[in-house]
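[09:14] KT: can someone run the structure on this one? pasting the chain below
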Amino acid sequence: MAELDASLQNLKNGDEFAAKISPAAGTRLGDIHVPTDVLVGEVDIADVHAEAGTIEERISGAQRDVVINAGDLVQLEQPEIVLEKLTNFVDRQQRVAVDVPANVLQSYVGTYAWRDKGLTVSLDNGRLLAQAPGQANAPLFAESETKFFFRTSEVEVEFTKDPKGKVTRAVIYQDGEVIKASRM
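[09:31] RB: done, structure tokens below
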């Protein structure tokens, strides 16, 4: 080790071993259509947080989890927290989704007032998506014809109708809180 320390000026950082991928991997993130959890340490470098943000933004339904009191080796620095986060993520993937007719899904499309903001619900290729302000679209999975869940977070959305059958509200269940979001 002492020899290496004494000769640091002789080290060369070339890219001769780097794989040349075309097109760049970052441009293909949108092709990923599976639930994705990105774990990043709270005190990791800014570049890693930026890359994690890019991954979260470009993969539909991805979620970034910041592990508190960890740097770049989250699995070694906070193994219990990483195990808990991964276990919860895997458990959400195993929830059973049911099919809901397209016309029912279409009836939920719209914007719902939520904390002076809007929760936007859209339909894309037969899949219901939800987008909160500042976040990427995330797919909703049906538990029933009216209740949906995310595979990337512990959030559920239930749509309610008036006596005439018109969808008037989305009830959001998040972190023990019940948020009643009226349709705009």
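[09:33] KT: thanks! The helical segments are 2-6, 46-58, 74-77, 79-93, 102-107.
[09:34] RB: yep, looked fine to me
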